[in-house]
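Subject: Sanity check before I submit

Could someone independently write out the structure tokens for this chain? I want to compare against mine line by line before I put it in a report. The sequence has 247 residues.
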Amino acid sequence: MADVTPHALLLKEAEKQGLLGDVKIQVTEISGDIDPNQLVNAGDLDANFFQHVPYLTDWNAKHSGADLVALAPIHVEPLGLYSKKAKLDAVPEGAVIAIPADATNQARALFLLQDAGLITLDVKADQPGLDYSQITPEKNVTGNPKNVGWLKIDRPQLAATLDDPKVQLSVINGNYALEAGLTPATDALALESAENNPYANVLVVKAGLKDDPRVKKVDEALTSPQLRQFITDTFKGSVLPAEGSGK
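---
Independent answer below. Compare away.
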């Protein structure tokens, strides 16, 4: 099970290029309120492809008996700051910023806003042992010169907040930005880079399947030089190959 863009597209491209060898895959695109981790953990699916490691770590911690594991980093969907109403150098006093509601992406949004110069945090993204799930604007924002406020929204709905008159800026995950017709590389006011990015998307399976030859073949295909080049050529900076992929 995979998100539509770019995850399912990458799986289909790997198959199209013959990178999967004799391995046959059935790609189901995520829709609605389905939790792909629950399905993999229950054994209903062999793997999913939609998340980064901090999200998976938080999910495992919240579900007793879960034993899902991540394979190699594949790509980064840069989190971006977008607006139809404001420029980065002219953010209005008291602006409302829509950010992801889930804990790990919320932390990620705050680090992006700090890099953009809008806020200051009392933690660093590369801090050893940092628990991303515990970082919140209420607890960790120590500098807020524009006195911005927060609206926490489920990730699939963030792009829609660009047209909400109550919201001046929105932090949107790369896949949802692409699905909404945005081009992160050119439309974002601020954008993450792939360098030292802990949010690379990964293929996820139950621990007992991580050494399965079929799983290994899919993971090798998704991290191959051919797929790295496809990501670069197709998305032109809106999706980035993860550091270490394609080696």
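---
OP: Matches mine. For the report I'm noting this point. Residues 44 and 150 are 37 Å apart (CA to CA).
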